[in-house]
Design goal:
With about 210 residues, the protein is α/β, with parallel strands linked by helices. It contains 9 helices and 5 strands.
Length: about 210
């Protein structure tokens, strides 16, 4: 059954994907496991996009399917998770990039794992991150970007945080498309996450949660 959800999302079969999610929730399955399968399906969509098998409208549609799945799954999670918030995270897709599917998945997974996520959206200027860090007192910043042009924006955002005298107060994680250890060094981030769960693991480590 797990395989089915992955392939239905990968094939952009909205009705079947939603039916499988409902059936699995009704059967009492762990909602986080369902979200993990949904993430794997989206990963395949991303691979098909990268190999020109899928195009922008397909990418957007897969994001819409993910939003619907999230709406179904979230109520099952939040009952026990909403009671505790472990820390604040300022999150956004950097200036010049409007991709939000990956960002939304990471933000969702952080949220259900007990973090208060302040989502700034897409194409976020450096100063907006700086202002929100000051305003919220967040100790973690997440920078997302799918395009290679995002690397420079990430670097500039981290520089702006530094120039504002806030760099020692926050840990910065980056993630998205082509992110690697080399890019992490280039941008000056503290760490990078390959996927949503890696982001959650980093946030827990940085806030001292096991």
């Amino acid at each position: 059954m797990n395989k089915d959800l992955v392939s239905m999302i990968a094939d952009l079969n909205e009705q079947e994907a939603l039916k499988i999610v409902k059936d699995r929730l009704n059967a009492g399955e762990d909602p986080l496991r369902i979200m993990e399968d949904a993430r794997k399906g989206l990963e395949i969509v991303g691979e098909r996009f990268a190999s020109n098998e899928y195009f922008i409208p397909d990418l957007v549609y897969s994001g819409e399917i993910m939003k619907l799945i999230t709406e179904l799954v979230k109520p099952k999670l939040t009952r026990e998770e909403e009671t505790r918030k472990s820390g604040k995270i300022v999150f956004g897709t950097v200036k010049g990039d409007i991709h939000d599917i990956g960002k939304n998945i990471v933000a969702f997974m952080l949220d259900v794992n007990g973090f208060e996520v302040i989502d700034l959206g897409v194409d976020v200027p450096e100063q907006k991150f700086v202002e929100k860090i000051k305003e919220s007192g967040a100790s973690i910043v997440g920078l997302s970007g799918f395009l290679t042009l995002a690397f420079d924006s990430m670097k500039q955002t981290i520089k702006a945080i530094e120039d504002a005298g806030l760099r020692d107060r926050v840990k910065v994680m980056i993630g998205g498309g082509q992110i690697s250890e080399e890019i992490r060094k280039y941008t000056g981030a503290d760490a990078y996450g390959r996927d949503a769960m890696a982001g959650v693991t980093l946030a827990k480590k940085w806030t001292g949660i096991n």
